[in-house]
C-alpha cells in the first residue's frame, strides 16, 4: 500500500499544527453548542458571549418540563427502529439474491430511488396516505423511512455476500439445500459483521431524516427532528433549551457512528464507487 | 457490466456469473419483497408525480389535464429561474470549496501521524449529525444581534454581518455551512483514494527531482481524478436537491434569496397546495440531477 507523495515529511510539527487548525474549525461550532446548553438561560444570550461560566442543567430541565421530549424521543426510536427492521427484512435477502444471481439492475433501481429528491415522492405519498388515513401515524413514517434504509442496507450488505467463499454455497446446493436455506442457514451467519454495520447506519440515517416526517408525521408521531424544527419556528427565544435539545438529538447518531467508524465511508459511498 | 460506472463492479464476480448461470432463477424470489416495496413506494409515486405535473391540480379541487401547460408556465416563472440560478450558485460554490478543501484535508490525513483515530472521529461528526441540529447550531451562532460570529467579527475590528438574514449573503453562508459539514466526508474519500495509489510514480517523480508541488500537481492530482469525481457525484446529488438546512434556517428567505428549486417545489406543493405545478418543478429538478450525475459519470468513465 502506498503512503502517497507527502509522507516524506521533514518536520511533522507543521503538519500537527495544520491538523489542529482543521480540527478546531470542525469542533468549534459543536463545542459552542454543547457549551451553550450548559449555560444559565441569561448567560446564553449574553453579549459579548461568556467563555467562562458555571455549568448548569437548567436548560435540560426546562426542555423536559416544557415539552414532551420523552414522547418525541420514543417516536424517533419507533420510527428509526421500525424502518431499520423493515429495511433489514427487505434489503438483506435482496442483497443475497443480487450477489448470488449476479444481477445488477435491482440494486441500481434502489440506488436511483435513494438519489432522487425526496420531494418527488412526497406529494403522491401525501395524497395516498391521506386517503388511507395513515398520515400522522407511526406506520407511515416507518414505511417511508424504509425508502432510505432499504437501499442503504442492500448496498452495505452486497460486498459481504460477494465475499463469501462460493465453494460453501455450491456444496450446500449440491447437497440439496434450497436457496432460502442457503441464505438463512449458511450465508446469514457468515455476514453478521455486515448486518451490524448495516443496522447501525440505517438507524442513524432514519433517525436523522427530516423531510418525510416534516410532512407525514402528526401530533402523536412527531419525531425529535421535526419537534426540534418546530422549536426553531416557535421563535427560538430560549436558546439554552434549544441547544440542549440539539445536543440530545445529536448524541445517538454520533455515538452509533463511532461504533462503525471504520466502515462509515465505504457505507456512505456504497454504489457510487467504480469497481 | 465493466462499463457501469454508477453501480457495482461486475469484474470480481464475472467468473461466478457463468457458474451460477447453470442454476440461475433459484434465489430470485428473495428479491421480490424489496422490488415490490420499491415499485409501490418509489416507481409508482414517481410515475404519479409525472402524471400530476401534466394536470392543473390544486389540493381539494378536481384535477384537470392540461398537457404541458405547467411546464410552459415554468418558462415564464421568474421565481423558477431565480431558483434555478440559486440552485446552481449554491452547487458550484459548495462543490468547489469542498473538493479543494477536502483534497487538502485528505492529503493532511494521509500522513500517517499520531492522532489519526481522534482526527477521523472529529472529522465524521459534522456529517453524521442530523441536519436539524446543524441548522439550529448555526442559527444561534450566526444570529445577527447576539451570535458568536458577529462577536468574532467585532474582535477583528470588522462590522457585524446579517449572515442568513442578508439577501446577498444568505446563499454563500449556506454554502459555507454545507462546506463545514461535508468537507470532512470528501476528505475521508480522498484518503481512501490516496491509499490505493501505487508508490512507483511518486518514487520516479522524486528521483527525477520533482518538487513536492510538482509531484502533487502532475502525479497525485491526475491519479486522484476518479476519486474526486466520485466525491463530486455524491455531493452533486445532495447539493442539487439541497433542502434541509435551508428549510430549517431560512425557509427560502429572506424574500426568495435562498429559494432553491427543491425549496420552491416544496413550498408550492405543501404550503400553497398547487400540486400540479409543484410536480412539474420536481420533475424538472429530477431531470437536472439526472443530467448532471450522468454527465459526471460519463466523465469518470472516460478517464
CATH superfamily of the largest domain in chain A: MetI-like
- Structural category of chain A: mainly alpha
Distance between the termini of chain B: 17 Å
Largest interface, chains and sizes: A-B, 114 and 118 residues
Treating each run of at least 4 consecutive H or I residues as one helix, how many helices of chain B?
Answer: 13
**CATH class division of the largest domain in chain A:** Mainly Alpha
Poorly predicted segments of chain B = 1-7, 9-16, 18-25
The CATH top-level class label of the domain at 84-272 in chain B: Mainly Alpha
Report the strand count of chain B. Answer: 2
**Could you estimate the helical fraction of the residues of chain B in percent?**
55-70%
State the oligomer: heterodimer
Q: Can you identify the CATH superfamily of the domain at 84-272 in chain B?
A: MetI-like
Q: What is Rg of chain B?
A: 24 Å
Name the helix and strand elements of chain B from N-terminus to C-terminus, one letter apiece: HHEEHHHHHHHHHHH
Percent of residues of chain A in beta strands?
under 5%
Main beta-sheet annotation of chain B: 2 strands, antiparallel
- CATH topology-level name of the largest domain in chain A: MetI-like fold
Which architecture of the largest domain in chain A does the CATH hierarchy give at level 2?
Orthogonal Bundle
Question: What series of H and E elements makes up the topology of chain A?
Answer: HHHHHHHHHHHHHH
Amino acid at each position: 500500500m502506498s503512503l502517497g507523495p507527502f509522507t516524506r515529511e521533514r518536520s511533522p510539527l507543521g503538519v500537527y499544527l495544520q491538523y489542529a487548525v482543521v480540527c478546531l474549525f470542525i469542533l468549534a461550532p459543536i463545542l459552542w453548542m454543547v457549551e451553550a446548553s450548559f449555560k444559565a438561560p441569561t448567560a446564553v444570550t449574553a453579549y459579548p458571549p461568556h467563555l467562562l461560566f458555571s455549568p448548569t442543567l437548567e436548560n435540560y430541565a426546562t426542555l423536559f418540563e416544557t415539552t414532551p421530549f420523552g414522547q418525541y424521543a420514543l417516536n424517533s426510536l419507533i420510527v428509526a427502529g421500525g424502518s431499520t427492521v423493515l429495511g433489514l427484512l427487505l434489503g438483506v435477502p435482496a442483497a443475497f439474491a443480487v450477489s448470488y444471481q449476479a444481477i445488477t439492475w435491482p440494486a441500481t433501481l434502489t440506488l436511483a430511488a435513494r438519489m432522487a429528491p425526496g420531494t418527488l415522492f412526497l406529494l403522491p405519498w401525501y395524497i395516498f396516505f391521506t386517503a388511507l388515513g395513515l398520515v400522522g401515524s407511526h406506520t407511515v413514517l416507518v414505511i417511508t423511512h424504509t425508502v432510505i434504509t432499504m437501499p442503504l442496507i442492500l448496498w452495505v450488505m452486497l460486498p459481504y455476500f460477494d465475499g463469501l467463499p462460493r465453494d460453501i454455497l455450491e456444496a450446500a446446493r449440491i447437497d440439496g439445500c434450497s436457496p432460502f436455506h442457503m441464505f438463512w442457514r449458511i450465508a446469514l451467519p457468515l455476514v453478521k459483521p455486515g448486518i451490524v454495520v448495516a443496522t447501525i447506519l440505517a438507524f442513524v440515517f432514519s433517525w436523522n431524516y427530516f423531510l418525510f416526517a416534516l410532512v407525514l408525521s402528526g401530533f402523536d408521531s412527531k419525531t425529535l427532528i421535526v419537534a426540534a424544527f418546530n422549536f426553531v419556528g416557535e421563535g427560538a427565544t430560549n436558546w439554552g433549551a434549544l441547544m440542549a435539545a440539539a445536543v440530545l438529538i445529536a448524541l445517538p447518531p454520533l455515538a452509533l457512528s463511532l461504533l462503525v467508524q471504520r466502515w462509515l465511508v465505504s457505507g456512505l459511498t456504497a454504489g457510487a464507487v467504480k469497481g | 457490466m465493466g462499463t457501469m460506472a454508477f453501480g457495482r463492479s461486475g469484474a470480481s464476480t464475472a467468473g461466478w456469473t457463468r457458474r451460477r448461470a447453470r442454476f440461475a432463477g433459484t434465489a430470485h424470489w428473495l428479491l421480490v419483497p424489496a422490488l415490490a416495496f420499491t415499485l409501490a413506494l418509489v416507481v409508482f409515486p414517481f410515475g404519479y408525480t409525472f402524471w400530476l405535473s401534466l394536470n392543473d391540480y390544486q389540493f381539494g379541487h378536481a384535477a384537470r389535464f392540461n398537457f404541458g401547460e405547467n411546464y410552459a408556465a415554468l418558462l415564464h416563472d421568474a421565481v423558477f429561474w431565480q431558483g434555478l440560478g440559486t440552485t446552481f450558485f449554491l452547487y458550484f460554490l459548495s462543490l468547489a470549496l469542498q473538493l479543494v478543501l477536502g483534497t487538502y484535508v485528505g492529503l493532511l490525513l494521509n500522513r500517517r501521524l499520531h492522532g489519526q483515530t481522534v482526527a477521523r472521529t472529529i472529522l465524521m461528526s459534522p456529517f453524521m449529525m442530523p441536519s436539524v441540529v446543524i441548522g439550529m447550531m448555526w442559527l444561534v451562532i450566526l444570529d445577527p444581534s447576539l451570535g458568536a460570529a458577529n462577536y468574532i467579527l467585532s474582535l477583528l475590528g470588522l462590522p457585524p454581518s446579517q449572515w442568513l438574514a442578508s439577501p446577498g449573503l444568505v446563499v454563500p453562508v449556506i454554502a459555507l455551512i454545507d462546506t463545514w459539514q461535508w468537507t470532512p466526508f470528501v476528505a475521508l474519500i480522498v484518503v481512501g483514494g490516496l491509499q490505493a495509489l501505487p508508490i512507483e510514480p511518486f518514487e520516479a517523480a522524486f528521483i527525477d527531482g520533482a518538487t513536492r508541488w510538482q509531484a502533487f500537481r502532475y502525479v497525485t492530482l491526475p491519479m486522484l481524478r476518479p476519486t474526486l469525481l466520485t466525491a463530486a457525484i455524491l455531493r452533486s446529488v445532495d447539493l442539487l436537491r439541497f433542502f434541509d438546512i435551508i428549510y430549517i434556517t431560512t425557509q427560502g428567505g429572506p424574500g426568495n434569496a435562498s429559494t432553491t428549486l427543491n425549496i420552491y417545489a416544496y413550498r408550492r406543493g405543501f404550503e400553497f397546495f398547487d400540486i400540479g405545478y409543484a410536480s412539474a418543478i420536481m420533475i424538472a429538478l429530477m431531470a437536472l440531477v439526472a443530467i448532471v450525475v450522468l454527465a459526471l459519470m460519463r466523465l469518470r468513465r472516460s478517464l
